[in-house]
Amino acid sequence: MFSSYITTAVRAFAKHKQHFALNVLGLSLGLAAAIMVTLFAVYEFSFDRTQPNAERVYRVHTDYRSWGLQFVGTAGTDAPFLMKQQTQVEDVLLLADADSLEFYNAPLALTVKVADRQVQLPDFYSVSNNLLDFVTLNVLAGSVQDAISLPDQLALSQSTAISLFGRTDIVGEQLNHGSGSYTVAAVFEDLPDNTHFYFHTLTALPKHADPDVHGYVYMRLAPNADATAIETELNRTFTERQQGRRKTLSLHMIPLLDVHFNSRGPFEMKQGGSKQVMWVSVALAVVLLLVASTNFINLNIAAAAKRAKEVGVRKALGASRLQLVQQFLTEAILVASVAGLIAFALVEIALPSVNQLLNRQLSLDFSMWFLSGVIVVILLVGVLSGLYPALFISSYSAKRVLSGDLQRGKTAIWVRKLTLYLQSVLSIALIIAAVTIYKQMALVNDLEVGYGKTERLLVKDLPAELVFKTDNNRLFDTIRSIPGVSQATASNTNLTVDMNGELHLTWPNGEQVEGTQPTVSTGFYAAETLGLTVLAGRDFSPQYGTDWAHTDEQGITRYAILISESMMRLAGYTDPQEVIGKQATARRGRTQVNIVGVVADVKLGSAKQTQLPISFRAGVISHSSANIVVKLDGSVAASDVAQQLRAVVTEQLKLHEVSVTRIEDEYQQAHISEHRVQQLVLFFSSLAVFLTCLGVLGLASFSAFRRQKEVAVRKVLGASRISIVNLLAKEYLVLIMAAMVLSFPLSYWFLDGWLNHFNERISQAIWIYLFSASFVAVSTWLTVATLAFRAASIRPSLILRYE
User: Which intervals hold domain MacB-like periplasmic core (predicted)?
Assistant: First the structure.
């Protein structure tokens, strides 16, 4: 019996090739989207699940939003370490960026000498000696525990060891630096991609470091501990030990298994994922699969009219309704199976592009559980999508069908129209979302941030003492001589990310501005190179030797600064010219600054952050690493300049590896989640509209076949082709208009919530909504027209000759 079902199904596919192809195309696209998103979701949820006691570990985050800043993944160790007195807290781990330890009286050398090269130790962290209780490491040689317990010992990743020495058997090798040397105590395998931990160099936390070192703090709780109560107690302890405006800050304990989704801010080991992107992907894939399944239903119902006589004959020959249902369900499952195989091929083809979009390394998993899951989904899609058409087709009366009566009841008509209505709602909503998100991201890209984003390169993470030199600095002279380079300066802050420090001044009028006041350390020609708009005064210049930071015999540090317009107004001044040349103090008079210029306001970080009063200071080394910003003149391709720039910096500073990026790319990276949502919505909305048109094609073909005699009579009476097209398309256009009633408010509600995350946002324009509905309506009309023109072109005599 089953073999006869297969034979009949193959014959039906061969006879109705177009119907079969449309069914397979729609389902394969829906299944491919579902498989791709499943791979993505499984990968995202796999982060950090292999770490020891992962379900009981939390990372402490600090909420700086009361300061106009972000929610960041670092925290001080003071309060968390005091929580170890609690019986519900088993242990606390600290990973501190080695670059930051100079602020805690424990500076570490970041640059070492290998042969004749100076090498910046990559992703260098100082850790407490319980690291292995929190992080799984595959040790290749030596002892990581020794490296993180003994002074001047290092544990290097496999890739770092090969980069420095060309091999991994390097335990005992020495790495010399200015104040001594490190000994390599261990080599460990590079961390897997599906962990938020990212380090290549590890050493012990210096014993003489201040007690409240800031870094990545992890707390492991006892089994069945109350995390909410512990977080409340942690914040109480933290607040008691703070002073001034730091009392407005708060701490949050993020489960280790959720850290990947909460690592989008600055100062992360590596940028994490976005739950918004993942759930948007899942939702859109489900929508697409539902649209594809309803298309399958509509196309099968449309084909039912063409197979009605077959059903009538088989019923007349004694076939039961159950047998007919089994036959058509077999056909549905076969179509779904073929679509599944094509979906796997589509996924394999699309994976490289998807990996580039999502910055992931997804691959098809042919494990037993994955294949079993996909097979179950394919069978469910086949059965659920094919069940209603099978019941519908098998319900034909042999007598009515063989007598030429193909009319069905109102229930079937409403089911088909309801599915098309929901498809139209989703299509209109997705197009509205795609256009709105595109316009918002265009606003973000064109947003006036107060500095230059285009035609600028950023050389990242260089030794600050080699970059911030005022005398005999051949490096900058050589950079400025590179063809295509207009100007260059030093900077300790990536303006597209966030602040690195603050400068609180006491002004000559006695004013002391409260709140967050970021400061950026730069070199000469800062305003010109960074693209700042000077409203009054001048730029930092080597013509004025006192601009550069210097300390006099009394131990007072002096330097020149540029201030933003908002800082000037908060200090009580209204005229930019009024503050030029004025002296202000900081650190209780130990720092004296000379205001040499006022610049237009600058917005640090992403468009979601608040604009803050900011200052720029010349020649202040506040971190052990720094950047070089290069302004281009546009005469030479940026890639060519970057290549020469990399070679110059490598040679002059004797560094092993130098990273050069474009500032506009860095700015894009600050909004990467929003850009990914934009591209996903655009892609899925295009597929949804395409599949909706397939559904319309199915219903229109059924309608044209059912009303072919009416069309023939109208042609005999003189009706034109266009009038017949409009007649057949009218019911679908009415559905589109009805879909607007539901899609418009839903789209507005969802998009308004998304736009509220931005400080600068667009207004939702009515034309976007009307355009989206019109686009779907025109696509629907054209789809119907392709069938209606063909129906209207058939000679009436061929249709009415048996009447």
Answer: 21-236, 466-647
